[in-house]
Amino acid sequence: MAREPRPAARVVLGVGGGIAAYKTCEVLRGLTESGHDVQVVPTAAALNFIGAATFEALSGNPVHTGVFSNVPEVEHVRTGQQADLVVVAPATADLLAKAATGLADDLLTNTLLTARCPVVFFPAMHTEMWEHPATQANVATLRERGAIVPDPDVGRLTGVDTGKGRLASPAEITDLAQLLLANPDALPRDLTGMHVVVSAGGTREPLDPVRYLGNRSSGKQGYALARVAAARGARVTLVAAHSVSLPTPSGVDLVSVSTAAQLRDAVLDVSAEADVVVMAAAVADFRPSELAQYKIKKTEGEPAPVALERNADVLAELVRHRRPEQIIVGFAAETGDGTGDVLHHARAKLRRKGSDLLVVNAVGEGRAFEVEDNAGWLLAANGDEIAIPFGSKSQLAAAVWDAVASLRQP
Ligand code: CTP
Question: What residue segments make up the domains of the chain, in order of their start?
Fold first, then answer.
């Protein structure tokens, strides 16, 4: 399928005065390499951490902090008015407080007041500052007014300390910014209070100490589901098989597994109390009946056949043991064949599996596996069918969470 070129958007990248400002350079690079026109608007404090020259060179645009530069062009108003998206990273406690109270004493805070496009703040600060009632109240106010404020990550902070308050990774910030440019409504806070479990990646079934039966799943779709759910306010547990090269999304609890049996145990364990379970993992249907203790040697003549036995169907088990209000989502990677097209097979699979939703990807010819974009359909047990246009895996994830949220509505 041909990929539509993404049109250039005008992005304002606001930078607060925190040590995490060094990561913003990578966000800037990611956005400009995607073809967007990025104007960096740092606070004066941010320039203590990164020089204006770095931002100017990477963005190709001049950088100011105050409202008295470029006065004939009324820059303090125009910058916000013309933006398609404002991304603030890092958003310090001070900057969140100014934004919540509507202060406008520099170019960035003026821009925040004049922007009518989506505004997303990525907080970064020490845990005590994040947890302080003043910061929490400011974040609540900003969210109420429609700003998007994902919780910060948990991890290493400036010094040797760790905790909640770490800036999201540049890859995550760039991805969520791209998602908002493609769909400004992709990150409502509608999963707040929910616990969601997502399985991701491809299981490996060992044959001997060095070989395994595996599949081509990269884990990217499951990670996108986890990332978008966390940004929409959910508590997320990600059960991941062999997705080691992907950064763990902010605030997500990661359980790493390898085989289908391990994935089954982990998913059933964490799903007992979950509100939603999404089985995006490619789980091996079969495993070698025997695990050779030593590496299997090449022998003369015909190789010995590998005997296989069946693995449990985790999705079917989840459906059997579900609580009445629990939502179960399955995935299906399908190709058409002589007996029917992709949708024909997918409808039959939804009936067979008994999940509430089935996300259907058409695979083959380089689609769905190991790539950045996906297209498909969302089939619901109530007969609804939604076509998901070609787009990023995060866009598909947002469509899945939209469908889950509408099922949760009475
Ligand atoms: N799945 C599972 N346990 C398995 C195999 C698959 O939970 N042992 C889940 C996958 O995570 C996915 C869904 O079932 O959500 C559909 O996977 P798929 O491989 O398309 O389905 P199968 O039942 O294996 O059907 P097919 O005969 O088409 O392979």
Answer: 10-182, 195-408
